[in-house]
């Protein structure tokens, strides 16, 4: 197969018309792809081969070459932490940060030149308590987000969360045969693994929240 420039041209035009999101989701930008000669040559070759050797139509072949080189749409991963009460993915926490500051003639802090963000040179991991930015519930640790399918529906599994917040929020509980304890306030429910239940309630099955 002799490579013909018109295929390269069409591939470039195709990429220019594509949504930037396709590239962002793969950790790329449209511009870097267009300027990367090696990648463009691979796309060109696959595209031309699809059309000339396999007789595929052009629209299909353009997409096929893109997916061959960049892979299919990456699956959106589930968030690691999420508020079990309202589903929010954002929390207000605390963090130790170190920044360059102006110091006056007495050797004390004077000012931050031009905003904090530009002057941070080191920061530690955010720590709790974490407050959900939507419903305001407070957690000692960030609530991990897992779900479990039970006969009555899909529930968030609460683990590593101080379940006293559920008690405060007026939740009651009952057991599921599948090894989960469901706590519910009538409107929404979350599931605790049995291990967590034992941890928090010392295995007292008759405990009432
Ligand atoms: Zn919340």
Low-confidence spans? 205-209
Tell me the strand order in the biggest sheet. Answer: 8-9-12-11-10
SSE order in H/E notation?
HHHHHEEEEEEEEEHEEEH
Task: State the helix count.
Answer: 7
Structural class: alpha+beta
The average pLDDT score comes to 84
User: Main beta sheet, described?
Assistant: 5 strands, mixed
As a percent range, the share of strand residues is: 15-25%
**What's the gyration radius in Å?**
27 Å
Estimate the global geometry from the Cα principal axes: flat
First-to-last CA distance: 74 Å
Q: What level of helicity do the residues show?
A: 25-40%
Count of extended strands:
12
User: What ligands are attached or bound here?
Assistant: zinc ion
Which terms would index this structure?
binds zinc ion, 32% helix, alpha+beta, 3-stranded antiparallel sheet, 23% strand
Describe the 3D structure.
The protein has 209 residues and is of the alpha+beta class. Among the domains are: 5-70; 92-133, no CATH class. The chain contains 7 helices and 12 strands. It has helices spanning 5-17, 20-24, 30-35, 37-52, 58-70, 164-168, 194-201, and strands spanning 91-94, 97-99, 102-103, 109-111, 120-123, 127-132, 138-139, 146-150, 153-158, 172-175, 180-184, 189-193. It has a 5-stranded mixed beta sheet with strand order 8-9-12-11-10. The longest helix is centred in the first third of the chain and has 16 residues, at 37-52. The radius of gyration is 27 Å and the shape is flat. The termini are far apart. Bound molecules: zinc ion.
